[in-house]
């Protein structure tokens, strides 16, 4: 059963990622005064599919709260920022007698 739940979650995640791309495309089309009805129909169909998948996920025993796109993006940003910023404390301390200050 866990495999089925994980498979549904992967599909939901993939659809959400595709939806953000289509939403960006719609914004771009609106900004250019172009017709965005085709992309809008695709987005509405994807939303309906996500709603159906969430229903199947809950019926299969998925009980934890699914993160929103904003939460997922902020979490992945925090993860990336946390792994890249590592400071070696010994190297961060200035050595005596050396300074960048101008005299």
**Rg, please?**
23 Å
Low-confidence spans: none
Count of helix runs: 4
| Whole-number mean pLDDT | 78
Shape: flat
What share of residues is helical? over 70%
Structural class of the helices, strands and pairings?
mainly alpha
The main β sheet shows up as: none
Distance between the termini: 71 Å
Order of helices and strands: HHHH
Strand content: under 5%
- Let me know the number of strands: 0
Structure summary:
By secondary structure, this protein is an all-alpha fold. The protein has four helices and no strands.
What does this structure look like?
It is flat and about 45 Å long. The protein has helices at residues 2-31, 37-59, 69-84, 89-92. The termini are far apart. With 103 residues, it is an all-alpha fold.
Features:
0% strand, 4 helices, mainly alpha, 71% helix, 103 residues
Helix and strand arrangement:
Blueprint: H1 2-31, H2 37-59, H3 69-84, H4 89-92
Helix pairs in contact: 1-2
